[in-house]
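I hope you will forgive my troubling you with a question about protein structure. The full record is reproduced below for your convenience:

——
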Amino acid sequence: MLSKVILESNIVQSVKLLDNADNILITSHISPDGDAIGSSLGLFHMLKNLGKSVKVMVPNRYPSFFNWMPGIENVIVMEENKAESVKIFKESDLIFCLDYNSFDRVNGMKPLLETSKSKIILIDHHLNPNIKADVIISHPNISSTSELVFRFLCRMGYYPEITLETAQCIYTGMMTDTGGFTYNSNDPEIYTIIKLLLEKGVDKDDIYRKVFNTYSESRLRMLGYCLNKMEILNDCNTALITLTLDEQKQFNYSIGDTEGFVNIPLQIENINRSVFLREDKDKIKLSFRSQGDIPVNTIAELFGGGGHKNAAGGESYTSMENTILKLKEILQTN
């Protein structure tokens, strides 16, 4: 049996909102990862099977290694379909906000969410939710939003109706947001959930291959390049990896190609923190990872971000050089 993490009042209110909803919209954050896509599509399949009219929307394009996921063709990318997206928001009477705690994390969808008259259900596992919602299901101690969606469906009594497609999506989100269950994954109930998903027919080995073993040759060469110029800060047991826009062009960078880069330096003895800095058109994206009791979310907060103790992210709106200087100063005192 799973613990009843989600409050009964939240379940009761969610059931009422779902019963009264004609057009449901599921949204997730910018640069959607496996948990964003997995939780969204997992919920999508269940609501569709319950006879609901449902749409899924993300702010921008997701990595191509999620193209195999059942229902992925239904995901609307707002950046590529702005007029359609605005229309969908206007027609929706219930909106799910999955895997984000602030409208600042949804880019172009922000003004549409802020002005929407729809009812809102938030399901998320990040700290300090800052969204005015009718139902807030926020549990930072849970490994992933996909796990929360599974618990949400089970609490409403829908486990028997969970299909293989729903289970595959939820498992993908749980797997990717824990680095293949290598961090934030010590709760025994995670493995109870995995058992329940396997009983729905999930092939976990096949999902792992589809997500982690379908990269391009150029992606592997880019990884080798990054590791070759990796900087080790021995005095604070930290590794830094950087990648500029020009360097990305050298290796024909595609969305998602750097997924997992930040985890690799943690394989080095005595390295307990790793930071990956990737230059975008208008900012520097920082990804933080750590091991054991070493927190990185507090550092990410100094870059306008946040996350979990061992996995977090932030952004910098100055140059790569200045960002590295600021980061090194912070690392020396944290």
